[in-house]
Structures are given as structure tokens and as C-alpha cells.
Amino acid sequence: MSFQSRSNYFPIPVILLSTYFICIYFSLLIKYHGEFEGFLKGESRNYAIGFLIGSLGSCVQLSIQFAKEINTLCQSPEKVVLPSYYEFIGYIFKLIWGGITAVVFVLALRQGLLASVENVSGFDIKTTVVVSFVVGLKAFSILKRISGILDK
């Protein structure tokens, strides 16, 4: 019995599509409907939205990588290593990593640790969303650079 199969691709688009829905739906609920006010108060609402939007950016990046892998599978199947049963767990961890990275960058920008922002008081939800999405898109290259620094 082989642990690698084309049928193991099935959970990946399900995870990606559900992540798109969850991130967009819950960030809109938090921002415009005031949901989760019991435990999301003040700035924690912005960080929760930042986490969701960072995961959304990471999901966009994973969707592009998945589409490239499926394209390679269709064009030249001998070049593709088929996924194992647990391939989808890596996708889940990468989505979470995109959200965590976005929150860390937003915190660093708000605290003035990065020199790109001079006026921290003007750092509103729109800026948080844009920064979180871009950081989520680049979360994997950030991870590679951090691991390169730690390896030295």
C-alpha cells in the first residue's frame, strides 16, 4: 500500500477554499458587526483581523504554489512527487505561520522597531490590513531568512 497518491490532493483545495471563506467572513464579522466583543477588546480586534488577513495572504501564496504543482502534474507527471496522506497538515501550518508573521510585523511596526513607519499614531485598521496581507504573501521567504540567520 502506497502512502503517496493523486487522491491525496483532494484535501488541499478544500483547506484553501475554507481558509478563504473563514478569513474573509470572520474579519468582516469582527470589523463591521462587532462580533466577539467579549474577548476582543481594543487593539486585540486589530490584531485578530491582522492574523486573519495574514493567513489570507498566505492562502493566496499557497494557492499559487498548488496551481503550479497541478500544472506540472498535468504537463509532465514524472517530475512531480505525489503527496502523502498528511500533506494537508503542512498547508494548515503554513496558513497559521502567515497569520503569526503578520501579527509580529504589525506589532513591530506599532512599537517603532522597524524604521519604515514614523507616525505610529496614524496606524489604523486599513494599514494593518495592507501590511498583514503583504507579510502573509511573503511569509515563506521570511521563514527562509529567519532559518538562514539561525543556522549561522
Can you tell me about this structure?
The chain has helices spanning 11-32, 43-75, 87-110, 125-137, 139-151. By secondary structure, the protein is mainly alpha-helical. The radius of gyration is 18 Å and the shape is globular. It starts with 10 loop residues before the first helix and ends with a helix.
Short structural summary:
The chain is 69% helix and 0% strand.
Terminal CA distance = 41 Å
Mean pLDDT: 85
Helical percent range? 55-70%
The helix/strand class is mainly alpha
Return Rg in Å. 18 Å
SS field, number of helical segments: 5
Strand content: under 5%
Q: What string gives the helices and strands in order? A: HHHHH
Q: How would a textbook summarize the main sheet?
A: none
Count all strands and give the number: 0
Unreliable residue stretches: none
Shape field: globular
Question: How do the strands and helices of this protein lay out in sequence?
Answer:
Layout: H1 11-32, H2 43-75, H3 87-110, H4 125-137, H5 139-151
